[in-house]
Amino acid sequence: MVIREAGLLFRGFTLVKKSYHKSTLGKIDSDLRSGLLTAILNFAESAISKDFVEYFEGKKYLIAFKKNQIIADDSFEPELLISYAIMDREKRVEKYTRKIVQPLLTLVGQEFISKNSGKNLSEISQFKPFKKQLDQIFGSDTMNIDQKFEGLF
Question: What is this structure's pTM?
Answer without folding.
Answer: 0.85
